[in-house]
Write a structure and sequence with these properties.
The protein is α+β, with helices and mostly antiparallel strands. Helix content is 14%, strand content 16%.
Amino acid sequence: MGTDCAGAFPLDGEGPVREVTLSPFAIDTFPVTNRAFAAFVAATGYRTESERFNWSFVFWMHLPPDRLDELVEDTVAAAPWWCKVPGADWAHPEGPGSSIMGRENYPVVHVSWNDAAVYAAWAGKSLPTEAQWEYAARGGLVQRLYPWGDDLTPNGKHLCNIWQGEFPRIDTAEDGFRGACPVDAFPPNGFGIYSITGNTWEWCADWFTTKHSSTSAIDPALTDNRELTTGNSRKVMKGGSFLCHASYCNRYRVAARTSNTPDSAASNIGFRCVENP
């Protein structure tokens, strides 16, 4: 688990490389889709935090150019490509006037960690620990950059949905997609798991920390991963998204990681679940 490779982000706590032993578990073949989440909402009446807050973040290029001023309430100062869009939620991914019609097999987005945890509990499952997620993502390979090896595009073939072009203004969509794509758009890894890299970030159960021991561990407990002394209150996210690019966010590598607050949501954050026998 982890990496010390060139190109890694040490400040993200990607290293050191460490051996982790896990008890058996089952992980979803696909991220939770719009279809699956809609069934959950229909069964429970659940309202996501984006719906309750009445806004979420949407990437600027995915909004109708003629409605930018109308739809956007604000942008993020450090990342102005993120627009605060009133009315954006899982069922309206780009805000009012948009819908998931035709995107039933896309990963559900605009779901916070809190939302994902409620869904997982309803399904009789849980969110994966970071160790579970990374083990599953590696697909049986040891210390490779990606689920399929070390070459991002072997023989020129795209194997995941990430950004091509010049971020954040030129998206050539060489992989066939601008924005999210169906969960089965690219081949699975060696464990038969789809869409584990790129497309949308995936929430993990763990609290985020950058302090890891190189000592081997067995089923690291979630509470061990919280930096209680610093008051950290962010959750781990893995896998990268359709916005990741080598010049901006080279985090579609298996060992890469980032974090967000449990109530955060955006148009590139989703999740999948695990079952622990």
